[in-house]
């Protein structure tokens, strides 16, 4: 969604575009049908040879974290000066570098194309397909919108804030930087031929789409079986910027709080927000207020937070009533009617002494406690003054939670288990806190029994070792094609190979 605008969220991208374009990825694996359960067959499995491949990968996906490498990437930029966080992605051979906004509300990754007719000036040179020996255009197919002149698939994204991006789809090797265990992978991305609005004027080159959709970088990597179906973001705090991102699974701290995230309820990453407490007291609003339209959506590409009218008024009144010792002043920009308070002091670590604690209570009763830096931004013109980073979502009844809400919070989008986890932490030192080393030095965890119950990161190469007590695989094949019968042995060899087990065990 990549929204930086203050008064109105850049809000949810046009859904039709998602649906129309969702199927353009050629690499999508179909979901296997469920066979009728028969009596289970128990076998001890012995591993044959390490041959990571697609089927084995997708089967291993269910075995939990640690079975796959992940992509550990640093985040740059910050909320107030840029309005977004970016990561570095490298596309092509030799690699061309890009700074992309990490956006859980977008479903495609795109960079300005050398041939772009309407692209702004960004921080890196445009992508030059001709300079990459591994680039290939995505040829027209039944699933995509086609540019008939070029016989190449196209994409288009429009955002409610009136910015847009369109171009052609290409495929190339994408690499995730030096700290990533995950090896470079082929992936489909957009090569932009036109940008408008914020996408034109921003410093960052483009968007890295982490949303739900077949063109999402997440879906592509998961479908290839190279990462497990989860990613995490950790945004730095007020005045700090930067942070960390992990594509793929990672161990969750034992005191992480979770909310269910129902992919059927909304195409966006939603959470079940039930109540907001200010200074320990629940806002007196109908809980259904957080479940209208798209419900409560978490969007890493939006800067601030936007509540439906009733909840916003109640929130603003509750915070204001708790800070009557502070002077209410005008915002830094006369174009916006920001609600700001002066006299709180410069030290962010002391803001909780003046501003109330805010808790978000989820459907399961679990509670995420926010600190003032999660709902305030620093007044750029008055020292020691802060403004509410929570706004009314116009007349839109959707609750939209952007980056400010999750500053200094590790957020795990656990797509596999349909839940989203939150853990307050100092994101500037996340790797150290989680005892995870970089790929070049796969520091085995020196587990010092911190509050988080961590397991060591998997070894960077080869198949990680893991002990399996018992695997039950229900498989039934109904052969009605008589000519297949003589090939049953061949078939079982193939299945054994894909499962990486000894064929005599099938
Ligand atoms: C900010 O406040 C914290 C906690 O009270 C304190 O430890 C720190 O020294 C303060 N920093 C500055 C720069 O005053
Ligand atoms: C977080 O960690 C960074 C880097 O170690 C440090 O500079 C910063 O003061 C820490 N922030 C807080 C709130 O402790
Ligand atoms: C196998 O498939 C055929 C044709 O679909 C069906 O009639 C038959 O009942 C199936 N047999 C079993 C054991 O499922």
Automatic annotation (TrEMBL):
Residues 442-453 have a biased composition (Polar residues). The keyword Magnesium does not apply. Keywords: Aspartyl protease, Glycoprotein, Hydrolase, Protease, Signal. GO terms for molecular function: aspartic-type endopeptidase activity. GO terms for biological process: proteolysis. The lineage of its organism: Eukaryota, Viridiplantae, Streptophyta, Embryophyta, Tracheophyta. PROSITE patterns: ASP_PROTEASE (PS00141), PEPTIDASE_A1 (PS51767). It comes from Panicum virgatum (Blackwell switchgrass). InterPro entries: Aspartic_peptidase_A1 (IPR001461), Aspartic_peptidase_AS (IPR001969), Pepsin-like_plant (IPR034161), PEPTIDASE_A1 (IPR033121), Peptidase_aspartic_dom_sf (IPR021109), TAXi_C (IPR032799), TAXi_N (IPR032861). The active site is at residues 103, 299. Residues 438-459 are annotated as: Disordered. Residues 1-29 form the signal peptide. This is Peptidase A1 domain-containing protein.
